[in-house]
């Protein structure tokens, strides 16, 4: 839908902010104001009953836009493929995984660290501004485009990649309607400050124009060594920049959310004296890096945070927080940093994959640089082995600290020489905890920083199928069992009474654990699995 010179249409609630009157050759990036038809209609809708996390599992740096009556979201996938999930919802609580921005091939210029995608509906096109590591270089901000939010997306290449790295791209129009790219210079990677930059973006969204202008940088003590993850809106006389600061990740994270404002996009910018405006509470730690939208006169931020029970083992989950505007025109999150009436927790989410479709479910993931070869036939998953690292890997998000995963391996005694297959908790290709069969043995082993260690082993049972079970407690304590009679009876591995295995080492600094299957061995070997089930408690 093009915007004419005489007609003003609100195309959606975008966190890159749609809706203004522009020439047909341009698009608009701003927030719908309270007097638009859509905003008035939404003002009559009941308040959202927020049940967090709205995006359960490892969905860092979430971004959201509205197209028609559907909200679309995406999030960081980092070093897990497929790259950048595409999720949709009509009520902001129930989300469906509809696909991925790059479901098959990676962008030609990039190899890993796929971070901070920002979804923007501009006219009749959907743009994804994203960060990735440039082959032979450093982090850079790129952009992809599609004719609809569901894709398929066509990559337009990188826009900016400074010597120390450029991340967290966000599109915004200035007071004259000219389109800018906002991004962070990743100075903290070199113990340097982290300026937030703005620079004109051409109409084709393929190149920056003119000179860049610094908006602000990390200067306040609470911000620590960085500011990043800027999301902008235009409200009344001000541009507002919601931003994250300090340490993002892990048990010792110090992340929080701040706000700055300016009457012109290029500044001068003023930081709020009461920053940070969103910090941890008893349930959610280190909230930050999200995007902002409104429904009528209600305002929300979709951002990530750690559940304080599961922290990095589940990962940074998508949380929806409501805020209001005070008399001085600054945002205030409801209840401040510690809500007086905490929202209910989302129900645990389970998975039961019978492998009865023609292809893998879109929720399966793999190391982004080591995509496995798979086939799904007649209720079976056939996984071709790999000799590198922990082998060919498939994994699923976890959503709670306590869960049980089970799967069945067919004909373990006939696996080719040098091949093992089974169930695993995956951190990354060099950090794994697995129970596998192969070579006449049943083995429980761990791979830590690329070094493999056998925890327990025994002679392979003489059964045509083996069912494996893995139970997690508190996100990082694991117990393994096997069954040679289709789950009627279970044997612990190691023996019953042994202490749980500590998997604290598994997750990388920026990702949660995945649970799933693996096949390690020569590429001529294939392991066949039936049914994978993940039950969350």
From TrEMBL:
- Tagged with keyword Hydrolase: yes
Gene3D superfamilies recorded: 2.60.120.200, Glycosyl hydrolase domain, family 43
Q: What is this protein called?
A: Family 43 glycosylhydrolase
Report if keyword Plastid is assigned: no
Q: Name one Pfam family in it.
A: Glyco_hydro_43
- Record keywords, A-Z: Glycosidase, Hydrolase, Signal
The UniProt entry's sequence similarity note says: Belongs to the glycosyl hydrolase 43 family.
